[in-house]
Every structure is written in C-alpha cells, then in structure tokens.
Amino acid sequence: MTLHVYSHHPPHDDIIIAGNREALQHLQEAIGEALSSLSSTSGLDTYCNDGEGYTIHIVATELINELPLSYIDEDYGDPWIINKPPFSLIER
Fold first, then answer.
1. Domains in the chain: how many in total?
2. Which of 18, 65, 70, 79 has the fewest C-beta atoms under 10 angstroms from its C-beta?
3. Residues linked to residue 19 through DSSP beta bridges, in sequence order
4. Which residues contact 3 (CB under 8 A, 6 or more apart)?
C-alpha cells in the first residue's frame, strides 16, 4: 500500500494525493471513519515508495478556523510545532 501526499508550499499551490488503488481505498475508509461522529479522528498507516512509513491522521472538527495555516513555506504560515494545533487534535 503506497500513498504520497504532496503539500502546498505557498498559498494557491496545488495539493496532490497519489496512491495505488489499495491505499486510496484505505484512505477513503479512514475518512469515513472520521466522519462517523463529530470531533472524531482516524489514522491510516501507509508507506512512500521508498519504504518509509508514516501515518495520515484524519480529523473531523468544527474548530477548523482555529487551526494554523497548513502552508509549509515559513513566509506564509506558522511553522508547525509538535503539540501545537493541529497535532494537539490527535493522540500520540
């Protein structure tokens, strides 16, 4: 199961989620699981094609406007710090 998530650097950049069929089906299931109740989370353990594993956390929240921007370019958004939203929304 292989899934790649390409984030946006500055505003208006595209985000790409690319994966094989199995990975995309698991992502769809994880999204459905998160949507099953408000303020619910789910996770999907997956891999890049180099074998490195990571977890995609799907969070259903009504507090979306309180989260920092998700740009990874420091000129446009806050650098993400562990235990700061959105990381505070998931269990570690």
1. 1
2. 65
3. 3
4. 17, 18, 19, 20, 23, 24, 26, 27, 44, 46, 47, 48, 56
- Cβ atoms of 58 and 8 within 8 Å: the answer is no
Single-letter code of the amino acid located at 81: I
Type of residue numbered 35: L
Strand partners of residue 18: 4
Range of the domain at 35: 3-89
Q: For the range 74-80, what are the long-range contacts, defined as Cβ-Cβ under 8 Å and sequence gap of 24 or more?
A: 75/10, 76/9, 76/10, 76/11
- What torsion do the CA atoms of 74, 77, 79, 83 make, to the nearest 10 degrees? -170
pLDDT tens for residues 25-76? 999 999 998 888 766 788 889 998 899 999 888 888 888 787 777 766 666 6
DSSP lists the bridge partners of residue 45 as 55
